Fold this sequence. Notes:
The protein is of the alpha/beta class and about 325 residues long. It has helices spanning about 20-30, 45-55, 70-85, 105-135, 155-180, 195-200, 215-230, 240-250, 250-260, 260-265, 300-305, 310-334, and strands at about 10-15, 35-40, 60-65, 90, 100, 140, 185-190, 190, 200, 205-210, 215, 235, 265-270, 295. It has a seven-stranded parallel sheet, with helices on both faces.
Amino acid sequence: MSAHRPLNQQVIVVTGASSGIGLATARAAASRGARVVLAARNVEALAELQSEIAREGGRAEIVRADVSDRAQVEAVAERAVSCFGRIDTWVNNAGLSIFGRLEEVNDDDSRRLFETNFWGVVHGSLVALPHLKRSGGVLINLGSVASDLAFPLQGMYCATKHAIKGFTDALRIELEEEGAPVAVTLIKPAAIDTPFPENAKNYTDRQPKLPPPVYRTEEVAEAIVHAAVHPQRDIYVGGGGRVMSAAQSLAPRTFDRVARTMVAQQLRDEPAHDRDGTLYRPGQGGRTSGDHPGYVMRRSLYTRSVLHPVTAAAVAAAIGLAATSLIGSGRRRS
């Protein structure tokens, strides 16, 4: 895919910008000169971020929006165009999770999760497209390594991310078939140290956490701002996630056995705190990082490498070897 406008000439919309990946992306884009339009349910956190960006000499507009409501997403686009004249990149980032076995999660919570994670991406994409077609822009959707594989305790979250991948891939094909000047990138992070676990609805009696390896939030933000200028079809953030995806593709039944260990890896040895999370209400906001109890990798050498095509072949070979090793480990345990 060809390069697009430099960041310092772009107008970028980011949903879910009050914390985690969205917050880190807003900071990264604004620090490079992009004009940013930031949407989330927590408008107080957005206002603090707007002031922070202004102090650094940047420009940001904020809009309170729940992405499950298309009318509110349309208001985000209208604000961007009224303030800055166009939209160059739209980042569909808003999302959350539920920790609990599928038989325990009630239908209302499952539907609400889909309304935010999946329908939020659908609304954002379809609202953004007319503007991106005019500007020759970039659509960036946040999937997950869970777009390729599934793991226990977050089954409904995995389902939403599978749905996002299917929608994004089909949309990309349709746009290419009509010759539309819009590039579509799906970002697939591995476990990232954001407030994600504490914001999740929790059906368990223990505090949730993410399975290792866990990566720093800013690694995802770097991949997103790179894709805004140099879009790629898919970008995995975290070599660990890419290895698991490759292993699942090569030997899905064996990977299922490996995935069983993720039940224990997603629960801390401490009682659950706020089990309601932010499924139906805004979160605290203002934080890019969570409180992961283990080691957090500051950089993903894999991701930094694949953003530069010269090294792609060597990286692909290394991933293949690592996936084969993981499959062999799973077979020995079974």
